[in-house]
């Protein structure tokens, strides 16, 4: 169990101002010990008083809250995008920036750009100093060491000291995780899985990954690479994956593979919608497939259903193994919507045992594009709270 001060600060983050009596009840802590801890955190400037609480009979208690000046930085780095937010202690957004990014340019240009965005936020008055930084990256991460490890789509990032660099640059605790884990953490904090302890969060985008949340905690495995389902082989005769293996799920169905299949269909004249888009723009993307599907284009619908079938097959195995309470689908290709979702559901329900699927919702992410930065902010605050004076 985390130390008392960590649990106390998380409660104030998640529930807002609470009275001393409410904190004692929720933390199941003797009142003298709690009061001593509150006095210490007040003296350190981590929390502050927030006026009188509602009466519970007798003299009214004083509410306490996280200090209004507390600030965290949340960074969600994708293969082609960068989202940076500054939040307060309640993880409410104070400043936000989103822009295209190319992960292949390497860590130094990307981290320098993050620094420029945070410097802009500081100049605009979003913060004086940061209490914690959280970051997600699109590849395997040693959570213990705070470094990417042999990430297939991140050339130049292998073993780069991302966490230590952030901590040094901003003078505060920092934490680095892979992007699907931070999305799962974000969904647990403020999305559809708020009250769900056992769930799988499946990110379908440039790559495919799975955040495994069991017994109320993220399960990362011994070295931090649990949930890397994008590199499970689904077709022994399939295309070569970015990892160097053959027929991985990610090579068969992802943003890049869907765009590749769509281009073939457009050139072959199999899809009027895709052929028209190719003629107009010179290329086709996964977004074009989504648009074509909504217009009833048979080829686009078939491409999406085939992808859903492949993902559903992998998830059916995971359902039989882990018996989650919910599966959440997120990431850029979640915009393919209910055609994709229906196919995933169909395969999972058909190929898993009835006991495992009798009460198993398979749903789209409630937070959508904000799941990543939300989870990064949660991790940043957790890191800060663990080291709070």
Your description of this structure?
This protein has about 400 residues and is α/β, with parallel strands linked by helices. The strands form 4 sheets. It has a 5-stranded mixed β-sheet with strand order 6-5-4-7-10. A 5-stranded mixed β-sheet has the order 13-12-11-14-15, with helices on both faces. It folds into 3 domains: about 60 residues, Arc Repressor Mutant, subunit A (Orthogonal Bundle), CATH 1.10.10; about 130 residues, ATPase, nucleotide binding domain (Nucleotidyltransferase, domain 5); about 170 residues, Nucleotidyltransferase, domain 5. The mean pLDDT is about 95. Helix 1 packs antiparallel against helix 14, helix 8 packs antiparallel against helix 11 and helix 11 crosses helix 12. The protein contains 14 helices and 15 strands. The two termini are about 20 Å apart.
């Amino acid at each position: 169990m985390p130390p008392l001060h960590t649990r106390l600060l998380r409660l104030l983050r998640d529930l807002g101002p609470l009275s001393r009596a409410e904190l004692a009840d929720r933390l199941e802590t003797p009142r003298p010990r709690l009061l001593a801890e509150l006095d210490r955190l007040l003296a350190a400037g981590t929390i502050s008083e927030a006026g009188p609480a509602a009466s519970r009979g007798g003299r009214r208690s004083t509410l306490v809250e996280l200090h209004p000046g507390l600030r965290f930085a949340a960074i969600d780095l994708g293969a082609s995008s960068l989202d940076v937010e500054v939040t307060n202690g309640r993880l409410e957004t104070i400043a936000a920036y989103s822009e295209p990014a190319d992960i292949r340019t390497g860590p130094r240009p990307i981290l320098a750009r993050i620094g420029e965005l945070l410097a802009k936020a500081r100049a605009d008055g979003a913060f004086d100093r940061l209490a914690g930084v959280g970051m997600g990256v699109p590849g395997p991460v040693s959570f213990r060491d705070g470094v990417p490890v042999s990430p297939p789509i991140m050339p130049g990032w292998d073993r780069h000291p991302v966490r230590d660099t952030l901590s040094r640059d901003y003078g505060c605790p920092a934490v680095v995780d892979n992007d699907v884990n931070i999305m799962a953490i974000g969904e647990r904090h403020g999305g559809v899985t708020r009250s769900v302890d056992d769930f799988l969060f499946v990110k379908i985008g440039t790559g495919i990954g799975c955040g495994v949340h069991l017994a109320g905690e993220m399960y990362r495995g011994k070295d931090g690479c649990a949930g890397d389902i994008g590199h499970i082989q689904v077709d022994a005769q399939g295309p070569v994956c970015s990892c160097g293996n053959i027929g991985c799920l990610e090579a068969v169905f992802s943003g890049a593979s869907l765009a590749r299949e769509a281009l073939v269909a457009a050139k072959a004249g199999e899809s009027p919608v895709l052929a028209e888009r190719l003629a107009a723009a010179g290329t086709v993307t996964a977004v074009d497939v989504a648009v074509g599907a909504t217009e009833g284009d048979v080829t686009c619908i078939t491409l999406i259903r085939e992808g859903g079938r492949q993902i559903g097959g992998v998830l059916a195995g995971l359902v039989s193994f882990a018996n989650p309470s919910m599966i959440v689908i997120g990431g850029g290709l979640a915009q393919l919507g209910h055609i994709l979702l229906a196919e995933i559901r169909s395969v999972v329900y058909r190929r898993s045992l009835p006991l495992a699927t009798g009460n198993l919702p398979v749903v789209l992410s409630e937070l959508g594009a904000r799941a990543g930065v939300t989870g990064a902010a949660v991790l940043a605050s957790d890191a800060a709270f663990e080291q709070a004076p």
